[in-house]
Amino acid sequence: MNKVYSNADDAIFDIADNATIMLGGFGLCGIPEASISALERKGVKGLTCISNNAGVDDFGLGKLLKTRQISKMMSSYVGENAEFERQLLSGELEVDLIPQGTLATRIQMAGMGIPAFFTPAGYGTEIAQGKEVRVFNGKHYLMEEALYADFAIVKAWKGDRYGNLVFRKTTRNFSSSMARAGSITIAEVEELVEPGKLDPDNIHVPGIYVHRIFSHKQYEKRIERRTVQLAQNR
């Protein structure tokens, strides 16, 4: 099977309105910039997006929020996006805020074929409403269901033509689990190499999980919040 596509627009060709999409990355680190821009160009609407955060204004998923292409966000952190806040408060956007550990584990369980698990996170809060509660060793736990998606889109440092992926540092946090949880997984990589060029011991996602892959060179890699310190006069 040829998994290699020429660009992002070709790789997302069958993503249609009302699709559920996982998008990898941690904050703005390691987000699939090329694929997000391709979704914006395609103009698909009614998307349910599952991501660690909702990007920032005019970058990352913030681009799709601005064009009203997202109808529902499932995230754990959304504090840097004014447009997200506006749409939430006005009722234009459905939002499911999920504790970060729970979000990561729900995705991981989907990739492992485990339909549900129990966690103490969120018990006694609004998050627990409507969820099954059980007691283990005197402690209350919520049942959380695995989280699946029609498409998982991730960005890796390197990949080969078989779809094997290597991530760098925090870009791996959600992406490696998401790549296993999508019905169709699309990977964009900074460097596409021939099979055999990647060290098997350093592959983070085996190619069996990846259906499409393409290389992209021009990444902005924006820093979400830059903190600097003024030099002290000596």
TrEMBL record:
Keywords: Transferase. GO terms for molecular function: succinyl-CoA:3-oxo-acid CoA-transferase activity. The keyword Membrane does not apply. This is Succinyl-CoA:3-ketoacid-CoA transferase. Pfam families: CoA_trans (PF01144). The keyword Protease does not apply. InterPro entries: 3-oxoacid_CoA-transf_A (IPR012792), CoA_trans_fam_I (IPR004165), CoA_transf_BS (IPR004163), NagB/RpiA_transferase-like (IPR037171).
